[in-house]
Amino acid sequence: METSTLIIIVAVVIAVAAVAWFMLQKRRTEALKHRFGPEYDRAVKEHGDPRKAEAALGAREKRVETYHVVSLNPADRDRFAAEWKAAQARFVDSPKAAIQDADRLVGEVMKTRGYPMSDFEQRAADISVDHPRVVDNYRRAHAIALRNQKEGATTEELRTAMVHYRTLFEDLLDYPVAQHAEHTEVRR
């Protein structure tokens, strides 16, 4: 075989490998965008580079895979749903206390499901793996709750926080609280 033929074959193999690598990277990026939704864009903004963001999201997935995350049993689900309804009712007379209840309840459900209770940013990162569509609501609600503790938040801001907490709470519970009385079995 001539040297020029060998060079052409090696060049073609390298080109095919480069195209295959590029396609795999593109497919991985699209899969992460689909899986994480807005959280993907947030990670890219936070890390300043799509590759670093993708590595961080991949590390989140691997970390959460080591947790023993379970569905709530019916008794816990009913108890948490009842506590949530009480927190919502409390909002009418004491919105600030209701937000504290909502934050605590979300944390308790996460802990009962098997998520470790570390600092807030770690909890949000962990929850983003299984609940990427609502983690932004969790962050927003938590920011309002913190502002409420430090300087006070308006009733409208507290209402918004309550709605944000509810979206994650319902996701963690596996069905909307409003349907609680209508369902005796777990909805799948």
Explain how this protein is built.
The protein has 188 residues and is mostly helical. It has two domains: 3-66, no CATH class; 74-174, no CATH class. Helix content is 77%, strand content 0%. It has helices at residues 3-36, 38-47, 50-65, 74-93, 95-113, 120-130, 135-150, 155-173. The protein starts with a helix and ends in a 15-residue tail after the last helix. Mean pLDDT is 85; it is low at 176-188.
Q: What is this entry, summarized?
A:
Helix content is 77%, strand content 0%. It is built from 8 helices and no strands.
Any key phrases for this structure?
188 residues, 8 helices, mainly alpha, single chain, 77% helix, 2 domains, 0% strand
Give me the secondary-structure topology.
Layout: H1 3-36, H2 38-47, H3 50-65, H4 74-93, H5 95-113, H6 120-130, H7 135-150, H8 155-173
Task: Write the H/E string, N to C.
Answer: HHHHHHHH
* Class per helix and strand makeup: mainly alpha
- The total count of helices amounts to 8
User: Percent helix among the residues?
Assistant: over 70%
Radius of gyration: 23 Å
**Whole-number tally of structural domains:** 2
Whole-Å distance between the termini?
63 Å
Number of strands: 0
Classify the beta-strand content into a percent band: under 5%
- Which regions have little confidence, pLDDT < 50, spanning 5+ residues? 176-188
> Major sheet: size, sense and barrel closure?
none
Average residue-wise pLDDT: 85
What is the general shape? elongated
